[in-house]
Amino acid sequence: MRVAVSRHNCMEEHFPWGRWKIYGRETDSAEAVGFRDLCLCAEMRISMKKILRKVIAVMVFCVMGLEMIGCGMKEKGSAGAYESAESAVENMRIGWNLGNSLDSTGSQFSQNKGVSVTGFEIAWGNPVTPSTLMQKLKSLGFNAVRIPITWNYHFDEEGNIDAEWMGRVKEIVDWAMEAELYCIINIHHDTGADGWLRASKANYEENNELYAKLWEQIATEFKDYPELLLFEGFNEMLDEKAEWNNPDAEAVEVINWYNQLFVDTVRGTGGNNAERNLICCTYAASTTSSAIDEFKLPEDSAENHLIVEVHFYVPYEFITDEGVNWTTPIDTYTDYVEQQVDSVFLRLSERFADENVPLIIGEFACDDKDNTEERIKWYTHVIEKANEINATCFIWDNGNKFSMGHIDRVGDADSFPQIIEACVEAAK
Questions:
Q1: Among the options 227, 236, 275, 309, which is catalytic?
Q2: pTM score, whole prediction
Q3: 49, CA 20 to 30 Å: which among 65, 156, 187, 349?
Q4: What are 148-169's pLDDT values in tens digits?
């Protein structure tokens, strides 16, 4: 069980599958007592002039101290009052992905230049995201939402983002802010097997300026948003061979380059972005040793405001459905399944938790194979292992109840409420 520091609710409690795919702090009483005793002592022993000097000195000290610790005198999210990345991850507790909505992509879009914003949003079978969804997530017990966004097809030849598309992204983010949810936005299927961003030196040379221009525009659009909003540099970036699990040294090096460029670009836009918590993915958001061993957290002008993200679809045999031909699916939660989960979390612990690097599991889910109780065991164990290393998990939801869909986005007919309840409970 994790106990989060309350900041935002003013509480006192102290790969290739599923492509359907809290801050108030009152001044310490010791400060007040110390100040009182100082004045009483001074009143008995020293002149009024000296008393005045000490009073002024103490007052200046207190004001400086309050500003430094961000004790609530500053507006939430204002520059200088940002919570650390570690605190943000702790306070997220459990998150959910708005999958297969703003992240749709495909060759059909390049062939149909007149596709509307709505056309993109519903292209992969999901409804237009309603204004009520974020409040629903909050009521279900979620404290965070990740909004995958594909920007390809939404910028011109010079890299200027379409205003209508940006407006729709902003509208959904605003609903998340109104619901007091942590919200992550990213560059999504611009990466992956069909993406234009690849982990190669040639690709970086060709596309680094465009990538930076996109992030400059996105970051500028949201630079005055509060700390509840986080940016994720990119989703599952692959090399030129679209290798998912075993990248070579060049691919991992270029991942580090793109992450550094992302951080530098966002910080350069100023405003709240100077200290906004930013998220950097490993190669393919993978948990394999080859993806994480040489991963480097970018250098950053802001201290303690970077988070690492990986995705968790382990083991493949359990999380995928019967329709694949690259492994033999299993639908029972066995000792083997648990051992595979545990071994990956041991690796994540040694690489990130032991080095005090904040971590989120940006996606995790398993396909429905008419095995709800077995799936609940898997979801619960993954979250419990994540809790052990102070990581927060985000359920992947592609909207397809026969695959990785969980929540009814427009009504109350949730596909798997038992799984949602189990995940929320395990994350407490």
A1: 236
A2: 0.82
A3: 65
A4: 999 999 999 999 999 999 999 9
